[in-house]
Amino acid sequence: MCLDRSRTATELTDEVQRIFAQIGECWVKTRFDAKNIPVAFAQYKTQTSEEADEAMALLQGSPIFGRACRIERARAPRTVYVQRRDGMELHIPMPMHQLGLFGRVEHFWTPNETERALHNLPLGSFFRFALYQHCQDAVRALRNDEHHIYTLQHANRPVNIPNMGPIGPEVDPKAIYVGDLPLYINEQQLRYKFGYFGWIVNVEVRRLVRRRIAFAYIYFAEDWSATMALTDPSLITKWTSTYMLVPQYPYVAGEYLSRVEPKRVTPHNQYPGRTNYT
């Protein structure tokens, strides 16, 4: 940013903070490279690029201690790789909860065996924060965590983010459909089972008494909670000896939430009259 190397990091940070705060509240960090050239990084606290775009347009060439600064977009590391200390397979909800205490995690994904071998990664998953500073705070605070290792992923290390296409024409990303439930199931049981994945806003239990089945719609506060509920293998759990949990995304058409046919997992010959619920 063409800063004055005769100034201290504190002086430069305070001055950059003062200038960039004209656009909005932001974090600023100043570093010196191997040649003692100072560079400052600023990130606005909103989760959109509007303030950064405005700063690029309006503050380019602003004087900082008499020197016109040059502003460029930075690739700030916001991704953390998490692995278990015992080397076993990572269970997503625990690190998601730990990281979420520091700020919003906007995306997570698990590399496949080929990607792990290519980049020499242990068993684990990537978690990307919405904001840089929240990522820094989390890695610093969780450095000595008893159960997990949290590693900051720098820009010079390739990270393959999968392209997650839509599951169907229209879905509610924060809700799941749970089918093939026993008729006696209630809201409290479902909240107990699915509350592990995050805060539940609402549970709708619907019963088809004549067919002796029930299904439910569960609405989470965050979309990643719904994603985890859909991908967690522990949900293949029997409620009774004949009923299993079958989560899917609920399709929506406008404001109408259509019923998705539950997948029957018990043998059809036991219940010959219950092969189609539509």
Task: Report what the structure shows.
- By secondary structure, the chain is of the alpha+beta class.
- The protein folds into 3 domains: 9-68, 2-Layer Sandwich (Alpha-Beta Plaits); 79-153, Alpha-Beta Plaits (2-Layer Sandwich); 175-270, 2-Layer Sandwich (Alpha-Beta Plaits).
- The protein is built from 7 helices and 14 strands.
- The protein has helices at residues 9-20, 50-58, 93-100, 113-119, 132-141, 187-194, 223-231, and strands at 26-32, 38-44, 63-64, 67-68, 79-84, 105-109, 125-129, 148-153, 175-181, 200-208, 213-220, 246-248, 252-253, 256-257.
- The strands form 5 sheets. Strands 6-7-5-8 form a 4-stranded antiparallel sheet. Strands 10-11-9-12 form a 4-stranded antiparallel sheet, covered by helices on one side. A two-stranded antiparallel sheet has the order 1-2.
- The longest helix is centred in the first third of the chain and has 12 residues, at 9-20.
- The chain starts with 8 loop residues before the first helix and ends in a 21-residue tail after the last strand.
